[in-house]
Amino acid sequence: MSKILKITGLEKTYSSGNKQLTVLHDISFDVEQGQTFSIVGPSGSGKTTLLGLCAGLDQPNSGTVELCGQNLNILNEDQRAQLRNKEVGFIFQNFQLLPTLTALENVSVPLELQGAKNATSKSKSLLEKVGLGDRMHHYPSQLSGGEQQRVALARAFANSPSILFADEPTGNLDDETGEKVIQLLLELNKENGTTLVIITHDLELANRTQHILKLKGGKIVTNQPTPSREASQRNK
Amino acid sequence: MGADYIIDSRQLPTERAQAIIDSLKPDASEVNFVSMIAFPKNGGTKLVKVQGMKGDFPFYGKINTEPSSASNSYQQSGGALVDATLMLQFNMKPGDSIKIGQLTLPIAGALKSMPGNSAVSSSVAPPVVIPYRFVESTELLQFGSRKEYQYFYKVSDTFNLERLEAKIEPALDLENADLDTHTSTTERLGKRYDNVGKFLNLAAFIALLLGCIGIASSVHIYIKEKLKAIAILKCMGASRLQSFLIFLIQIAGIGIVGGAIGSLIGVALQTVFPYLLKDFLPFTLEITISAQPILIGIFLGLFMSVLFALLPLLRTWYVSPLDVLRVDENGSQEPRNVRFLVFGIILVFLFLFSLWLLKDPLYALGFVGATVITFTLLAAVALGFIKTIKRFFPKHWSFTARQSLLNLFRPNNQTVVLVVAIGLGTFLISTLYFTKDILLAKTEVGQTTENANIIILDVQPDQKDAVAESITSKNLAVLNNMPLVTMRMESLNGRLVNEIRQDTTRQIKGWLLNHEFRTTYRDSLIASEELMAGEWVPYIKPGEPIVISISDNLANDSQLTVGDAVVFNVQGVLMETTVGSIRKVDWSQIQLNFTIVFPTGVLEDAPQFNVFTTMVPDEVSSAALQQDLVSKFPNVSIIDLRQIFTLVEDILDKVSWVINFMAFFSIFTGIIVLIGSVRTSKYQRIKESVLLRTLGAKNKQILQISAFEYLFLGLLGSLVGLLLALVSSLCLALFVFKEPFIPSGIPFLIFMPGITLLVLIIGLSNIQTVLRSSPLEVLRRES
């Protein structure tokens, strides 16, 4: 299988006053196309920073990120944005919907940015798929947390991404709603053949992916396929 | 006028009048009379006004002479100060002699200007000032000769002149004497300066309003950011009062600091202004720093900050601890009646403050009313705009254009707030600019070539053509050729003037009962006149009743109105007339104005002389014309207004400077407030832009969305503000300044695009954070 994400020697340092805080030390790993991949670790271990670097939302101090065959280090901000728009989907812990847009418009945004002609019809069908056919014209503030995350899910798949990054997708949801969202996420992922990178500290969720990378203090502790049989069976 | 008040009498004061004059202890006095003088050097003679001065007059301003030392030395050296124009006409130099009656005196200097001497009156008979002690030696002050006695007084700043006027003026009037105070003279100086005062107050009021908008919008956004923190404090047990006080104390502190800084700037400016204005202030200003205005400044800073922050501050009182979990924009708003109460207090304050500045309850109410109406109209236009976009949403526009339009009416939109802030700012700035223009247009007198600067009086009918020829032969234009007929009043409404004079209960002013009026006749009004009452009659056919037009001040002093009968004594011939109209005359315009104007067809055959006016470009051509005219027509009098024009222009230039300074100061305040208002929308837009960026939007797309949105807001706000400013300026021009209004194109050509551009730049600078920072960094911060 080809590698959709290739991380080599990644380092990220933040300045805090006069101090330099290194958040990630010498991180290297690969993600195969179509793989489900989880990054786990305690709070402050550098998970979200790593995801941001993988998706080209930030620049590393050293090391390289190769996403969909493109070296992000040599792309400028606009080129990275264009790559994200074509190849990447996002799901955030706090949903990050545009508060001024309805559910339907939120889902349409990635397609609208591409200038796609069928934006509305595709968005409608995605919202129906996530069970929100009757809430299309509601604003985020009129939706529950679970519904908002489902809108985010529909938006993430709107541009038919090659890779989807999910940052603690169930972190703000109760167990039952969280489970429903994960089910939906994995289903859509399987249906579209998308590569999925999930950040979580929920080991149970991580065990449902094919590969787990454990981080601690900004360093990789383990990087191996999921030992759980259930995961391998589910993704066959 | 050179003194705080003057008592004058056109005869030797009566015993009673002299008693009043002496009891008030005059600081200086003058006797003046009209007499022929001779110039022994070249044999010339001229009718002049001889002024015998005693005491150290003037108390304010100075006698302007050439050489300048002559004004101080003439009393000791025993010389005469002779009108500069007259010296020019007769080619006289300081040191030459003049002969006044039996007295021969050396000329100490050329008299250019003197406080209290107006250009026209002094030049009909040019002034010659001599020390009082020589008056008797002229042997010209005989019994029955015409003379005027003036007594000059200087009083302390706290002296109540109005009370003095009320007390002694009636008594003096009965004795044929007049009291003239500097306050009444200032009132007469014309509405131009009154309007400047009104304008400066308006500018101050507008600066204040702009400041208030600034305070309200800054505190609004500050409190909005802090709502979650307040909810947390409340969760931990902070009471409503405690959370309210935390922010109230902060705002009060900022207000005090702001007030103190403002007062310090004011003190600094106070020391600068006298240097700028020293050339035309007739007295030396002593700068003292008084505690009162500084305290008022600090108090205003404190009070205004708290008052205008009150509405947003109330959110801290009503914010629910539940907002820790979810901040709902509309969930914890203060009750409607509390809001209305705060609005009410703000309006009362605005009214009281404008009343304090404008000293007129009607104007104050007008300004506050206009502001409230503007505010309401702007909000209504913004809401109407939102409704229109919703209804006719252009679905086929590009994503970025649609997105920017959507932002204008979506939840948490800034449309109403920004349109009101931008519109109100533009409205105030443009109103100020338009009104500044109204005033400055008024100060442009004397700067065009149509304005005469040489007036030639006493031209006899048989000299008319020759004088005109003399003027045109020097390539100068005859701008005016007006006939002048002198006459006195014989009776008013059937009562003989002699009879009225004896009446101790009369309401009619004494001066006009003895006055020789210089009247003219013409068929139309001139630029400085405006019809107030009655009908203008241009022409009278022979045998028809004679209808005249009188000036408003004459109507007041004589108690005459339209339809009243006046009989004039025109050099021995009685002429019955009726008042047909009353004209408002702008005496501040430097040109020949008349209290009484006859229609054509009446006075053409009466004994008369003519007045010519022309415009000379410089000193050389002025001297050439004057010397030519004086040598050919010794009887004519010439007034050279060039010096007066220069002086007036100089003063008006400085007044314009003050007007411009205040206007641009307020406009600058407005721009700062605009920047503040647009910045408040920053936090609203950053998160959206970052999300779009994360989802793959390019810099260009993000910039376009913001640019369109702020372009719509800037254009709408500034256009509506400008249109409202046009209406308000028109009202101000008509009802407050009472001047015609010709709107300048500058606000349309510069302000509207300028303010739109400013809004655009500030709006785009808001999202620079998004464009420069990595999306992850901003997303984390915003989360």
TrEMBL record, chain A:
<dbReference type="InterPro" id="IPR027417">
    <property type="entry name" value="P-loop_NTPase"/>
</dbReference>
<keyword id="KW-0547">Nucleotide-binding</keyword>
<keyword id="KW-0813">Transport</keyword>
<comment type="similarity">
    <text>Belongs to the ABC transporter superfamily. Macrolide exporter (TC 3.A.1.122) family.</text>
</comment>
<keyword id="KW-0067">ATP-binding</keyword>
<dbReference type="InterPro" id="IPR017871">
    <property type="entry name" value="ABC_transporter-like_CS"/>
</dbReference>
<dbReference type="GO" id="GO:0022857">
    <property type="term" value="F:transmembrane transporter activity"/>
</dbReference>
<dbReference type="InterPro" id="IPR017911">
    <property type="entry name" value="MacB-like_ATP-bd"/>
</dbReference>
<dbReference type="GO" id="GO:0098796">
    <property type="term" value="C:membrane protein complex"/>
</dbReference>
<dbReference type="Pfam" id="PF00005">
    <property type="entry name" value="ABC_tran"/>
</dbReference>
<dbReference type="InterPro" id="IPR003439">
    <property type="entry name" value="ABC_transporter-like_ATP-bd"/>
</dbReference>
<dbReference type="GO" id="GO:0005524">
    <property type="term" value="F:ATP binding"/>
</dbReference>
<dbReference type="GO" id="GO:0005886">
    <property type="term" value="C:plasma membrane"/>
</dbReference>
<dbReference type="GO" id="GO:0016887">
    <property type="term" value="F:ATP hydrolysis activity"/>
</dbReference>
<dbReference type="InterPro" id="IPR003593">
    <property type="entry name" value="AAA+_ATPase"/>
</dbReference>
<protein>
    <submittedName>
        <fullName>ABC transporter ATP-binding protein</fullName>
    </submittedName>
</protein>
<feature type="domain" description="ABC transporter">
    <location>
        <begin position="5"/>
        <end position="234"/>
    </location>
</feature>
<dbReference type="InterPro" id="IPR015854">
    <property type="entry name" value="ABC_transpr_LolD-like"/>
</dbReference>
